[in-house]
Amino acid sequence: MVEVIIQLVINGLLLGGLYALLSIGLTLIFGVLEIVNFAHGEFLMVSMYLTFLLFSFFGMDPYLSLIVILPVFFLFGYAIEKIIIKPLLNDPPLNQIFATIGLGLIFSNVALLLFKADFRTVKTSYSDANLIFGNFFVSVPRLIAFAIAIALIAALLLYLKKTFTGKAIRALAQQRKAAMLMGIDVHRTYAIAFGIGIACVGAAGAVLLPLFFVFPTVGSLFSLIAFVIVILGGYNSLAGSLVAGLIIGLIEGFSGFFISPHLKEVVYFVLFIFILIFRPTGLFGKR
Amino acid sequence: MKETLTTLIESAKRFRKPLIALAVVLALVIPLLPRNPFYQDLIIMIFFWATLATAWNLLGGFAGQISLGHAGFFGIGAYTSTILYLTFGLSPWIGMFAGAGLSMIVALLVGFPTFRLTSHFFALATLAFGEVLRLLASYWRELTNGGVGLLLPHTPGFRNFIFDNKAVYAYIILVMLLAVLCVTYIFKKSRFGYSLFALREDPGAAESLGVNTHRAKMYALLISVFFTSIAGTFYAQYVAFIEPDIVFTSHVSIQLALLSIIGGIGTVFGPLVGSLFLTPLDIFLRGWLGGVFSGLNFIVYGVILILAVMFFPLGIAGWIRKKIAGFEKAPELPEKTSAEPVGCPEARAEHRAEAGAPLMTVDAISKRFGGLEAVKDLSFMVREGEILGLIGPNGAGKTTVFNLISGFIVPDRGTIVFNGKDISSLKAPHCFCRECIGRTFQLVKPFQHMTVLENVMVGAFACTRHTEEAEKAASAILQRIHLSHHAYTMASNLTIADRKRLELGRALATQPKLLLLDEVMAGLNPKETEDIIGIIRSISRDGITIIMIEHVMKAVMSLSDRIVVINNGIKLVEGLPNEVVKDQRVVDAYLGGAYHATAGLK
Predict the structure, then answer these.
(1) What angle do CA B136, B142, B146 make, to 5 degrees?
(2) Do A266 and B118 touch (CB under 8 A)?
(3) Contact B296 A262 (CB under 8 A)
(4) Cβ neighbours of A34 in B, within 8 Å
(5) Of the candidates B60, B128, B139, which has its C-beta nearest A224's C-beta?
């Protein structure tokens, strides 16, 4: 039993790192623009398909495809912010919500048109490879995904701490007006923050594909996970998202084993409701 | 409860004519259509989606609570009646209400925690809720037959809610549509409707005017869910087949929002208009294109959604209403009423009792925000009928004091006794309003998308359930605060001076015994200041006790009977105006040495 639990912890943490990368973009966008991107999961889906295409046409390794995905998704996010999000920033929440929902609808159904509803994935030489430590297994693609996720998150945190643009983003998240008065180009910074957020979810898609399938509605599955992580992590705390991602990974591992893998969304939702009732500001949110 | 019913019946009588006219027109459409299944299906679908969208709009449009989980309640309705029918042979007519009841119970459980959330996260939580129900319905095969779905056998009969003649379905869904339209129409003109609009525009201000925002949202949710759920049963009976991916899909929820947005969100007939336009388009896209390119219809929806929120947020009905409003002359205000004094009647009778009994006694209240102790062991008292000035430097904790004594912040320690009653443990600001404490906000919070008159009516509804009475009371207030000429102006178009007066009038309309004025003169020019000083004097003459936070010393000196000075959250000095301004501590902390020289203390 103890061995099973240790194995579940290993799997859960590896998955959790990936989930943290998945949700950190959502947290960043909400923290800075105060907009919940309802198309977040669909951006993930697009990135998974792009990774799939790069693999099938050019034989590009999914992890290597990050060098394409990251800049492409940054520009993608940057453009979406300029065209759709920026005009709606001062609108009532309704407009912001439905603009991103509309985007999500378009993405997932264009994918349906192009790829049909089939499940697709990539098979690499190391897809089924495992490292074995005594009685425990560590899946190689999961380990790589975890390492990449943590490295990217660390790079993001460092970027926000050290660079001028990073500081500008943090300043905007704290106080929009004061940041403007300090001479920060608000609209450029918003677009950059949005672009970075989308690049993060794009990266998550690329490293997720070898572990999972892609199909047009895969986004809604991962949206829910990302949303729960953001709330658990305290809405706008990036470090909170990291920890919450790991926690959710663990919970998924355990609930999948002890309850049923088919009910993991139900477990998330129950958790979601419990957080709302008992800890509405999340684990790391300020009261 | 009885009173609510009579008011509802009254309002129903008042708005009878347009509704009957609409009912007749829509009912005539059905037999006039060619007896062609295609057209019959079209009309049924138009009514069906209109019913659902109108129900959604009551919560999403009126109360501004955007639900993306209505598919969940739709599905509960469809599954409950169908399962009861297939398992126990229970008539779907009864099953329909069983489903609605179940939906409402679920709505209560979901609404309780999620209504705390801000709009984005409320939408998120409801989206997750709908998704989870879909998964549960797929997973729980013993009950729902899982992804295979449930098929209703074709056994026509009234009891079975299954008919050979499609026109019967058309009449049934028409009745449902008219019912939900009636309810929406009546609510729009009633106190309940005003509370929903108010809380959508600004929950804090709504609370301060006595609106129990949580309860109002809950009622809106329950009513909305009721109609959504019975429409679910209708769908199951009409199509005779349900499966989780059809009835629980978030596409249903999004569709409802889309119809409301295109038709005109927050209007009574908008969702119907939206359905008239979009349902035919939907059937066209699904029928002719969906077969070839599955998903194309949703791409079109996505594009329409984005374009609509970016360029056409008012929707068709909202746009028409705006155009009409441009041509229409503003209706006349009711006859000039004699400047009737306002305020709680008892308070009025005593009419400024000389150095009255204490009305509010604040005893050693404290409030800490993180490391900052904003208010420390503060005690003061205000007597009936007096004007108490509350002054001090910026950041001294004045507004925190107001938030504490109007229920927006719960004190860490200390008690507040008002009118002989300990009110420090009351839970929400609206309870303080019911105790007859009215307030304004330093940063004004007008209900932007409501007219000036409607703004004040929200306050007046604290004292009456009847729309006419509220309107009359509000008109009287507008005269007192010199805003009658702007009665039908949107609050968003007012100047700052008018907004300040509106803020004052709205609070006054709740007939307070104690009125808390938070810097109502800030940003006004001297003439406007004179005007508002006059208004405050007249309010005071009616026997309403006032506590005012003010930096305009001239006004503070001329209006206040007594002054309390606070600094760093503690009381510095309390006393008569002339004594207080001479006090060296006050001069040092707040007024500065130059005050006596320039402001010319007489």
Answers:
(1) 50
(2) no
(3) no
(4) 120
(5) B128
Of B68, B120, B309, the CB nearest to A99: B309
> Is residue A109 domain-resident?
yes
Encode pLDDT of B560-595 as tens digits: 999 999 888 888 888 888 888 888 888 887 777 656
Residues of A in contact with B118 (CB under 8 A): 93
Interface test with B, best of A101, A271, A286 (most B CBs within 10 A): A101
- The partner residue sitting opposite A36, judged by closest CB among B121, B139, B303, is B121
B313 contacts in chain A (CB < 8 Å) = 91, 95
Residues B508-553 pLDDT 10s:
999 999 999 999 888 888 888 888 999 999 999 988 999 999 888 8
State the residue range of the domain holding A227. 2-278
User: The complex's ipTM?
Assistant: 0.88
Q: Does any domain span residue A285?
A: no
The CATH number of whichever domain residue A12 belongs to comes to 1.10.3470
Contact A36 B123 (CB under 8 A): yes
Total tally of structural domains belonging to chain A:
1
Residue A21 in any domain: the answer is yes
Residue B11: per-residue pLDDT: 61
pLDDT of residue B332: 58
Length of chain B: 602
Burial A241-259 (b: 16+ CB within 10 A, else e): bbbbbbbbbbbbbbbbeee
Report the residue of A106, A221, A266, A270 to disrupt the B interface, i.e. the one with the largest count of B CBs within 10 Å. Answer: A106
pLDDT tens digit string along B158-182?
898 989 888 889 889 999 999 999 8
Least confident of A240-249, B2-11, B448-457: B2-11
Q: Average of pLDDT values for B200-211?
A: 93
List of chain A residues whose C-beta atoms are within 8 Å of the C-beta of residue B310 = 84, 87-88, 95, 99
A283 is a domain residue: no
**Backbone region of residue B370 per phi and psi (left: phi > 0; alpha: psi in -120 to 50; beta: other values):** left
Distance CA B521, CA B577 (A): 18
> In chain A, whose CA is at the least distance from the CA of B312?
A95
pLDDT tens for A154-170 read 999 999 888 888 888 88
